[in-house]
């Protein structure tokens, strides 16, 4: 069974994480899941009853490969991660909004934030699992699903790049206003989690604070099979 005993969220230093997010737009959490937990989560992928929707990326021009959105109630591990990671990140999300001159402030608990999403018609759960085979990739994108957007999200690499697949690297781009985009490859090991900016984050320049625009995606898999778990904190309309 997948439970919170299988991840190491309690060890996270949220302020150190904020430093990394402020300087790069992403932050690594090493070994959030152990290999056994990764295998247990991967084993959920064929269990159709757990999911509300399956998306074949090629049909939408999103890339190649597929993903499935979990349905409510989310599996315990996913629900607990979403709740606890939100609580760790919410002070930073509010600081980011303040710096960017955005009026929205996020409530302390994920439960309250989800109530806000649902009241605005964003009722569909967004946590998802993705599956890629050789030749698959995920085009650069932003996971915006409506008016309400929590500015940070998380992905966990469930497969082992040393054994299960090659290629298939997580890529992020950062674009300054009116500038070309800077790409960054973020190497992940099995069980590692990455927290990253959904679309915008504040940066300080000589003339004050401006907004950086981010996108993320996955480069083409050369061989094998790659599974990830994505945790997005806002729901979808
Ligand atoms: O498979 C990945 O590494 C990226 C998945 C993704 O786009 C997401 O979790 O939002
Ligand atoms: Fe995404």
UniProtKB/TrEMBL annotation:
Keyword match Magnesium: no
Domain Fe2OG dioxygenase residue range list: 123-236
Pfam families: Oxygenase-NA (PF09859)
Swiss-Prot/TrEMBL keywords: Iron, Metal-binding, Oxidoreductase
Domain of life according to the entry: Bacteria
Gene3D superfamilies cross-referenced by the UniProt entry: q2cbj1_9rhob like domain (2.60.120.620)
Family: Belongs to the iron/ascorbate-dependent oxidoreductase family.
Name by which UniProt lists this protein: 2OG-Fe(II) oxygenase
